[in-house]
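ligand=flavin-adenine dinucleotide
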Amino acid sequence: MYDVLIIGAGIIGASIARELSKYNLKIALLEKTKDVSNGASKANSGIVHGKYAAKHGTLKAKMCSEGREYFPKLEKELNFGYRKTGALVLGFEKEDLEPIKELRNNGIKNGSDPDSLKILKGEEIQKIEPKINPETKYALYDPEVGVCSPYELTIALAENAIKNGVELFLENDVQNIKKDGDFFIVETDKDSFQSKIVVNCAGVNSDKIAKMVNADNFKIQPRKGQYIIFEKNSGKKVKNVVFQLPTKKGKGVLVTSTYHGNLMIGPDSQEIFSREDKGTDIESLKYIVDTAKKSVPDILDNKMIRSFSGLRATPDTGDFIIEESNVENFINVGGIESPGLTSSPAIAKKVKDLIKNKIKLTKNKNFDPQRKPIIIKKNLSNDEVKKRLFIDSSPEKIICRCEQVTEGEIVDALNRNIFISTLDGVKRRTRAGMGYCQGNFCGPRVKELIARENNIPKDKITKSDGSAGDFERFKKFHELK
Ligand SMILES: Cc1cc2nc3c(=O)[nH]c(=O)nc-3n(C[C@H](O)[C@H](O)[C@H](O)COP(=O)(O)OP(=O)(O)OC[C@H]3O[C@@H](n4cnc5c(N)ncnc54)[C@H](O)[C@@H]3O)c2cc1C
């Protein structure tokens, strides 16, 4: 019997699990895929948004403004990758000044410092961001915005939650939930679990999960956002996150550097009908390139290495749903679209407060907030990389030459407390396969290490979607040039 059972190990489920692990509770975290962070939490812009980003008066605005403040402390504890960059929201026409002023007012209402949230004009913008379109007339400048590595944050939260007593069950697809007196029976395709409280954090499936207990007073419409990511070091092109004015569909196409220094452009926004559709298409990628060029004209000087997409869980209520449902002890955390990543620490605290009203919470005196980094920053010369590629198995041996990932880092990732059975599991933890060749060189070597360390036959090791690899992508990019 668990005190709390959390469904879905994205950033929201993992944040809640870690927050609750500060108390003496028996907690289960259930995830249908082979790893944590396989949903929207792995495929988003990675922006720690400013307070201007969500409409004043909404739960989104409250959670975003509160949540963003925890990031510096979380980075110190969990070492996932976060830094402040600043952001610009560009306006190209005279008429754009009014909406930019409105955004600023919204930020101030949500708690931004009026002295730092500024409206810049003409050359002032170029001084901050030299590669910006010289025709930009106005920009809202928020120095508080940052970028983070969203999947590393999710992994770090889950690892730390497990260290503090949470039990993670991967490859458990929740298929039915029954209420039996004072507790729930949660049935997956593998097993059955009993819990006093259930927290539904199933992302695009959160309405389906809620329906299992008739607690579905909301519907989710998935909205796909596609991205293009560029080669290593291309992120130097921009210092700030560069947005255009938001539209009805969202924050629009941005130009940013990822935490690890890759230039990234996207996302677009398309309503889709399958909750599994993660493909990218040439028309959307063309739209993204053309729109991004309006902000930073020479974007295509850099080489593209990959396209990907993420699904927003857009609720018909228009706001985050974070509440105990009409079914006692069944808590819905649904409709967590953007800025859900930024809001995640505050959402976790809100859920803890809901649970505090149900179960007496006593502090876990053994709670340890620290989680060590996996990636060790290095800047090896080409000669050193070549030398270390061909040495015998050792922690210093280079496995991924593009990202200079060592056998030691991969072995560390494989021997932590989450069982890794996919190439993507290693990729997201160590960056092996994130470089220009996208794993064509290191893929077989990583497979060997997964097989050796985790005792899995090599032919059973795939990417997280079950595929062997994606060699078609370069063809796609030739069409964009
Ligand atoms: C294109 C895009 C850009 C974004 N950009 C930003 C940004 O820059 N900044 C920001 O703050 N936010 C951003 N967001 C929002 C942010 O990514 C999300 O709010 C956040 O990732 C949602 O996390 P989650 O845990 O609710 O969902 P998910 O990460 O999708 O996790 C849900 C989990 O539930 C699991 N699950 C589903 N069904 C079941 C089942 N039946 N049984 C067991 N498990 C199940 C899934 O496999 C998944 O792992 C963006 C989102 C998108 C899509």
